[in-house]
Amino acid sequence: MVSNRKTFNLFSISEARNVIFGIATLWIGLFHCDNLTLATFTDNQFLIDAFKFFRGSGNIGVDMFLFLSGIGLYFSFKKDSNLLHFWKKRLMRVLPTALFIAMFYFSFRYVNGRYESGWKTYLRRVSFLYFFEKGERVFWFISLILVLYLLFPVFYKVIEKYRLVGMLGLVAVTVGLTFLLRQFAPTFYGYWEIALCRVPTFIIGIWAGKFVLEKKEINRNWLWLFLIIVIGMSTLMYFYTPIMQSLVKGYNKSMEAMWIWFYRYTGAVIGIFLVILDSFVCTSLRHKGRCNLLRNFFEFVGMYSLEYYMIFLNVNHYLERIYEVQPKHEFMLYLGSFFVSLALCVVVRKLCDFFMNYMQRKPKNLAELKAARKAAKLAKKAK
Fold first, then answer.
1. Residue 212: which H helix or E strand, with range?
2. What is the mean pLDDT of the chain?
């Protein structure tokens, strides 16, 4: 929604939500294709390095996803603030699909002897608790988002009451807890930093939800500032090591924690501004023929973002390991994994929807079962 030539309506973020989900999801998938390079297609070192940097920055897609999730949950809670309804709706959107894929994946790994045996360990993995216990990152994002769903009402209440101060306070608390955890419990920090450093992005998304819902308009000149910030921070990220070596005497790998914090929090800022910029581009090109086709493609992927995230990463790694793919064939592997994953996403979604619909129709006790049978007999006689 772009109201006039001088302003940009933030509700465009909501309108382009699935499109941006698709872009972020594909970027995350690209990030996990460690061996994908342009060296097979060109000798231009600048292009090779630029693509490597773009691929290596795909983790920012997680921040884009969490920012949008915060906005979406704000919308949902505004419509119905009943906690049980809210949690049920959120969990039913994620858990059936996540559990189905996790059960299949971990069962397959156990059968092939790639994990230690034991039902307790298996159940902790399938229930996404193993990330918190051992820092296992197979489906770490599912573990994080489930916790954020539970904490959302607390974040919402604080932000609704104190607005900007509340948001900044929550961000300060989460950042502070991350630093304290590294200082006093480095083992658990190593397990959880990938998730903890992303919580501020989610909190900022909740705070921004009010402005998006109220269709607040901002001057378009702010978009140029956002673009400059994205380019500037990306440049700092790209040249981080040489800059630190020139500023900090003896900078080396032992100071890697500095890089992780810089990378996570800089990526959060870049991700937030990319969501705004992408929404502007999406709404501006909405009625452009070929651009509309591209928009529809990203929107389709965005509809299956959860399934694609869980399926693609493992399909790609599995095929790469099984076929011992050479670097020159990595691009074909990526395309193959992409199409296979999309097909599996559709199948998994249909199976989970069928199961949930069946469970909702299924009588829950003997009295309901007898009533259902009686109703079926009466309907048969009526025919």
1. helix 199-213
2. 86
Output the furthest CA–CA distance in the chain (Å, rounded). Answer: 89
Question: Do 205 and 76 touch, CB atoms closer than 8 A?
Answer: no
pLDDT of residue 255: 64
Binning the chain into helix, strand and coil, the percentages to the nearest 5 are 80, 0, 20
Q: How many CA atoms lie within 13 A of 17 on its CB side?
A: 19
Report d(CA 207, CA 163) in Å as an integer: 7
Report the alpha-carbon distance of residue 286 to residue 296 in Å, rounded.
Answer: 10
Residues 6+ apart with CB under 8 A from 128: 98, 102, 139, 142, 143, 146
The one-letter code for the residue type at 207 is: W
Rounded distance between C-alpha atoms, residue 270 and residue 277, angstroms: 10
Pairing between β-strand 217-219 and β-strand 7-9 as defined by DSSP bridges:
antiparallel
DSSP codes of every residue in 271-325:
HHHHHHHHHHHHHHTTT-HHHHHHHHHHHHHHHTHHHHHHHHHHHHHHHHHHHT-
User: If pLDDT is split at 50, 70 and 90, which confidence band does 370 have?
Assistant: low
**Distance between CA 374 and CA 369 in Å, rounded?**
9
Q: How confident is the model at residue 311 (pLDDT cuts 50, 70, 90)?
A: very high
How far, in Å, CA of 187 to CA of 219, rounded? Answer: 46
Going by C-alpha positions, the residue among 280, 146, 133, 286 that lies closest to residue 217 is 280
Structure token digits, residue 2: 């772009």
CB 62 within 8 A of CB 141: yes
Across the chain, where does the E strand assignment appear? 7-9, 217-219
Q: How sure is the predictor about 218, in pLDDT bands with cuts at 50, 70 and 90?
A: very high
State both tokens at 183.
């200082």
Residue 295, token pair as written in the block: 């928009």
User: Alpha-carbon distance 63 to 230, whole Å?
Assistant: 14
- Top pLDDT among 284 and 9 is at 9
DSSP state, residue 363: -
- What the block records as the tokens of 254 is 């032992």
